[in-house]
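Memo to structure team: turn this sequence into structure tokens by end of day. - J.P.
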Amino acid sequence: MKSVLIAAGFGLIISILLTPIAIRAFRRQGLGQEIRDDGPESHLSKKGTPTMGGTVIVGATVFGYLAAHLILSDQDNWGFTATGLMLLFLMVGMGTVGFLDDYLKIRHRRSLGLNKTAKLVGQLVVGVAFAVLAINFPNRQGVTPASTVVSYVRDIAPFALGSVAFVILAYLFIAGFSNAVNLTDGLDGLAAGASAMVFASYVFISFWQFTHDCSNELIEGCYTVRDPLDVTLVAAAGLGACLGFLWWNTSPARIFMGDTGSLALGGLLSGLAIVTRTELLLVVLGGLFVAVTLSVVIQVAFFRATRRRVFRMSPLHHHFELAGWTENTVIVRFWLVTAMAVAFGIGLFYADWLDFVGL
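Reply from structure team:
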């Protein structure tokens, strides 16, 4: 438990201390956010706010994880694991794609960065690389970081996939959630606060798996996962990094995470779901991200079919702004939705364990 607190604490401290330094540095370099012209008029005042704050989130997560290992390096059987390093690779890789997107937006002074093809190719390279690595590197018990079986709270035995099918679905899952967080990152603190709550749920889930790991003791309801404690450290570091960044990102935001942060956070959340065997459960835990993405899909599909709109504007949070809700009202209510989704998801996870132990 000490290692989890160290990872979260260092992630929080590094993020909350480095973010104001990043704000000053980005302002000096003129790295300000461009605002889409067709968005709510209230957002036009945010033009020029420093962006690419996701670099701080990614850095704080990595160093929070490293700090836990370095401080406790003298303990027996304590070291870096394949699963933990793969998760960081996924986060940094997706963050790099987002960084390139942000940089092009700023360089060309427009609200669009990488074209769709370039962004998808970047996500493809990182997502496929993670998926291929994750079904290799078995431990002594033969357990790999990821399983080729579709999972909900555990692997669903009838839905076993081959390696190729798993890699394809894993890429779609990773790209889908990274873009979902990206779409949600449209209001001050919305994505950072929602992501922090989902990271908190994965701190609980992965630590519970660690205390009920089949490799330690074959008991009713145990979990066949690899390196659950190291997964907890990554989730805890991500949680601390998001909370530290939220201190400066909450309304009125002094800095935006940009695609650097949103793609990195979405990638890490999907990676956590894959290595904890809870892919479908993430749809519940991250229900806000799913709802926001569906609002865009519905809006585009319905408009192309009928030339009419379902929502005043998509993504969903802009619809409520145009309906008269203040920005802070939308943010707080969407955070409440996330909190309820996380509570419900954890309840489903715990209920599954109770079924196994016959309680």
